[in-house]
Design goal:
Strand content: 5-15%
Radius of gyration: 40 Å
Number of domains: 4
GO biological process, one term: proteolysis
Number of strands: 14
Subunit structure: Homohexamer.
Family: In the C-terminal section; belongs to the peptidase M41 family.
Function: Acts as a processive, ATP-dependent zinc metallopeptidase for both cytoplasmic and membrane proteins. Plays a role in the quality control of integral membrane proteins.
Pfam families: AAA, AAA_lid_3, FtsH_ext, Peptidase_M41
Distance between the termini: 101 Å
Helix content: 40-55%
CATH topology of the largest domain: Methane Monooxygenase Hydroxylase, Chain G, domain 1
Number of helices: 22
Shape: elongated
Length: about 625
């Protein structure tokens, strides 16, 4: 059987030819326009800038020159073929000390024989200038500026082409359509899954991608389709970018890294051109991985609020991205996988998330206790830890911390230990770094008057005692009245003993009571309130509103959801859906009821243990910082 030889794709060839012709046409038009503007600029420069700078003498008519020669005002002359330059007495200053002034005039082209006689009769000293070379004048006046303009054009063209800035799409002049993605070679990645901690489930999901890249034929053998896209979803700092790099490092394939914002420019069509160029580069380097960080910059939903302008650049870029994902023309043995990351999945376009585009959606959440222990071990490999440093306890006292938070805390602990010239990082350094990261730097230089200092001491004592007295309060680790950098005049640090994923109504009410314990202490002791509880009130109100609108913990409103936030990782204050005025009023009443009940509860607890409140406050005023054992001791007194 005769083997058929596939014919070349004529449509694609004609398309590439038309594209190249269009690029050459744009380059020619741009070059001619540059030359035209450069010539006009050169003439304006010579006429209005260069000539006035070179000719600084007073310009006088030729007739006035002859009159001044006869009057004896001319001192010296230099006769040229086209201009006459000389010095004369200052017409504005007739004193004996007046300095002569320079002047110039245009010479008569045919010459003036009588001028020499007038000069001799007046006794004026004169000389004849050698005629200038016309070739030299032409070179200096015209050729040299053109060479400079051409040189600027050439070097600017090359430099801007490398930087990717310029004109027109489709990779046209100066490469504006070129993708700004950074290609990382397999040997340069240097990150694998052993460098990632606290994301075991996500890693298991991504290992399948590695098998697709290494052995695509094993999946295609049974008719399986290689997935095209993987979307990493999670809060900031959970390691989405690190996971993508580690996947490329494990698979040992080229890694194209870029950001969604790099596709958007002021020129129309640039984003779509860069998308085309990025996928073309990835196909040439296949098997490879494309990683687009913060894809929500170009992948926002095309519905919803109307935008101004008919041709929205972001929509064009998104449409091109969808088209490229659908039209992956990669060979069976050379797959291309696109990975993307976002912490705003709720705003992504549904067309981007449908099956066949981003086939895998992997959620990367904040690590649990085991994950935090893994992350701390990774980030402490290059840090000298003290022998008594307990990594498990360090992981236990950092609930809710992301991988980036833990790396920052460990680095701060190392810096604190280095400042005191220690041989290793201790748990005290680690706990101090947590305080520094969470609450900010200590401001011991801030001077408070005695009344303010006493009020802060009672306020923090109220938080600590209520936390110990409520049934479900987290243990108090430290209480301090040292001002901190983020506006806190003091703080009470609680260290939970375990990670919690479900909270009961009673536990949430206890948390609100602890938040309001500082305000309650001020009310019990001074029978007055201050502005120090503003942040406490804000957090307590938000939690109470979530109890009513999200968790269905209101007997009056029942198990109905009134909040609109779903699957959001970035904070948003608007959590209430559109509801009737009567319902909104009931929500406000329920939130107020919860806050009022827990505030009164905190006051009652502190009144019952007033002696403990006074004892703990005295200890704080004396030492400024106490640990949790002192709080327990206050209740035992």
């Amino acid at each position: 059987m005769k083997k058929q030889i596939p014919e070349p794709d004529k449509g694609k060839s004609d398309k590439d030819s038309d594209s190249n012709n269009e690029i050459r046409k744009r380059q020619l038009n741009f070059g001619l326009s540059y030359l035209f503007v450069a010539l006009i600029g050169m003439w304006l420069f010579q006429q209005f800038i260069l000539t006035p700078l070179m000719i600084r003498e007073i310009e006088i008519p030729y007739s006035e020159l002859k009159a001044k020669i006869k009057a004896g005002d001319v001192i010296e002359l230099t006769l040229g073929t086209d201009r006459i330059v000389g010095t004369m007495k200052n017409p504005n200053d007739t004193s004996a000390q007046a300095k002569p002034v320079n002047f110039t005039t245009t010479a008569i082209p045919t010459g003036d024989p009588a001028l020499i006689q007038d000069l001799d009769q007046a006794g004026v000293k004169y000389s004849v200038a050698e005629p200038a070379s016309p070739v030299g004048n032409f070179l200096i006046a015209y050729v040299l500026p053109l060479v400079l303009i051409g040189g600027i054009w050439y070097f600017g063209y090359r430099r801007l082409s490398k930087s990717g800035f310029g004109m027109g799409g489709m990779g046209g002049v100066m490469g504006v359509g070129k993708s700004k993605a950074t290609e990382v070679k397999p040997e340069e990645i240097g990150v694998t899954y052993k460098d990632v901690g606290g994301a075991d489930e996500a890693i298991e999901e991504l290992k399948e991608i590695i098998q697709f890249l290494k052995q695509p034929e094993s999946f295609a053998r049974l008719g399986g389709r290689i997935p095209k896209g993987v979307l990493l979803i999670g809060p900031p700092g959970t390691g989405k970018t690190l996971l993508a790099k580690a996947t490329a490092g494990e698979a040992q394939v080229p890694f194209f890294e870029t950001s969604g914002s790099e596709f958007v420019e002021m020129f129309v069509g640039v984003g779509a051109a860069r998308v085309r160029d990025l996928f073309e580069q990835a196909r040439k380097a296949a098997p490879s991985i494309i990683f687009i960080d913060e894809i929500d910059a170009i992948g926002q939903s095309r519905g919803g609020a109307a935008r101004f302008g008919g041709n929205d650049e972001r929509e064009q870029t998104l449409n091109q991205l969808l088209s490229e994902i659908d039209g992956f023309r990669s060979e069976e043995g050379k797959p291309v996988i696109i990975m993307a990351a976002t912490n705003r999945p709720e705003i992504l376009d549904p067309a981007l998330l449908r099956a066949g585009r981003f086939d895998r959606q992997v959620t990367v959440s904040a690590p649990d206790l085991t994950g935090r222990l893994q992350i701390l071990r990774i980030h402490s490999e290059d840090i000298q830890l003290a022998p008594e440093f307990d990594l498990e306890r360090a992981a236990r006292i950092t609930p809710g911390f992301t991988g980036a938070d833990l790396a920052n805390v460990m680095n701060e602990a190392a810096l604190l230990a280095a400042r005191r010239n220690a041989d290793g990082v201790t748990m005290a350094d680690f706990e101090a770094s947590i305080e520094r990261v969470v609450a900010g730097l200590e401001k011991k230089s801030r001077v408070m008057n005695e009344q303010e200092r006493t009020t802060v001491a009672y306020h923090e004592s109220g938080h600590a005692l209520v936390a110990e007295l409520v049934p479900h309060g987290d243990p108090v680790a430290k209480v301090s009245i040292v001002p901190r950098g983020r506006g806190a005049l003091g703080y009470t640090m609680q260290m939970p003993t375990e990670d919690r994923y479900l909270m009961t109504r009673a536990e949430l009410e206890d948390r609100i009571a602890v938040m309001l314990g500082g305000r309650a202490a001020e009310q019990v002791v001074f029978n007055m309130i201050s502005t120090g509880a503003s942040d406490d009130i804000k957090r307590a109100s938000e939690l109470a509103r979530r109890m009513v609108t999200e968790f269905g913990m209101s007997d009056k409103l029942g198990a109905v959801r009134y909040a609109t936030q779903q699957y959001q990782f970035l904070a948003s204050e608007d959590t209430t859906a559109t509801a009737s005025p009567e319902t909104l009023k009931m929500i406000d009443e329920e939130v107020q009821r919860i806050i009022t009940q827990q505030y009164e509860r905190a006051q009652n607890l502190l009144q019952e243990h007033h002696s403990a409140l006074e004892w703990l406050t005295r200890q704080l005023l004396k030492t400024e910082t106490v640990d949790g054992s002192v709080v327990k001791q206050a209740l035992a007194e």
